[in-house]
Every structure is written in C-alpha cells, then in structure tokens.
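Dear colleagues,

For the upcoming journal club I promised to circulate an example of a predicted protein-ligand complex. I picked one with guanosine-5'-triphosphate because it came up in last month's discussion. The inputs are reproduced below in full, followed by the predicted structure.
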Amino acid sequence: TNRTFTMIKPDAVAEGNTGAIIKMIEEAGFRIVAIKKVQLTSERAGQFYAVHRERPFYNDLCAYMSSGAIVPMILEKENAVADFRTLIGATNPAQAAEGTIRKLYAKSIEANAIHGSDSDENAKIEGDFFFAGVEQY
Ligand code: GTP
Ligand code: MG
C-alpha cells in the first residue's frame, strides 16, 4: 500500500461536485488519509506549481488555483499514484477517457477539476505542503 496526493480544484468545488468526486475516489478503492478545505493565495499556488514556472500558462494557473476553495487530500491504495492518474484521466478533458473524473467534471485544460501527483516522490512533497504529520493518519 502506498500514497498519492490530490486536490479537488476551484471549478469543481464551486460547482458543488466535491461529494460526487470523493464518492468516485472511495468507490475506486482509495482510503482518505487526510482531507480539508482551504483557499490558496496566488503566491502559495505559485509555490505548489513552481515546476511549471517557465510555462506560458503559469500566471493563469496561479490565478485560477487561488480563485476559490480547494479540497486537498492524501489517499492510500496499492499502486496509488498510477491508479489515481488513470481514475482522473488526461489533463485536457477533451482527451480524457469515458468515466474518468476529468471527463465527467472538468471544464477545460486549465479548470480540470482535480490534481493527481505524478510520482511517489512528488506525492510525499505535495502531501507535506498541505498537511502536518499529525494530520496524516
Ligand atoms: P495536475 O494533476 O494538476 O498536475 O495535472 P497534470 O499532471 O495532468 O498536468 P500538468 O502537471 O502538465 O499541468 C498542471 C496543471 O496546469 C493542469 O492540471 C492544468 O490545470 C494546467 N495546465 C496544463 N496545461 C495547460 C495549458 O496548456 N493551458 C492552461 N491554461 N493550463 C494548463
Ligand atoms: Mg502534473
């Protein structure tokens, strides 16, 4: 068993899709290790997505990710990182497979409903960005 990190993004939270998305996550066999609802500042969103600093969409991404509340979570399952990326689908919802969270709930390549860590190493870094050790159980 291992862990991944996710956050339900501002578009999905604002539209009232938090519960439906969490239901899909639990039905896919993930256990919620940590969960909360927060709003990032643009600066803090920029720190989270620092890897994309040189990309043309970086400023838009920081504005979008700080535009409303998000729901970050740490999740546990065997093969968590890869299985969660499969559950959420492609970055661009137009290319996401049927039945994936992004196919069902994403609005655009930017407002794409949900994040999923891309490696075990980043899952740990990203989970620790939002949750203190005593919150991870
Ligand atoms: P995350 O799980 O959020 O990391 O998505 P990803 O791994 O599928 O995509 P990536 O890490 O490449 O991009 C991070 C986020 O930047 C995406 O989820 C989108 O919200 C946004 N993004 C990616 N590509 C584009 C783009 O071409 N234009 C815009 N406006 N936003 C983009
Ligand atoms: Mg990514």
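Two points we might discuss: Helices lie at 10-14, 18-27, 42-48, 58-65, 80-88, 101-105, 120-130. The first strand starts at residue 2 and ends at 8.

See you all on Thursday,
B. R.
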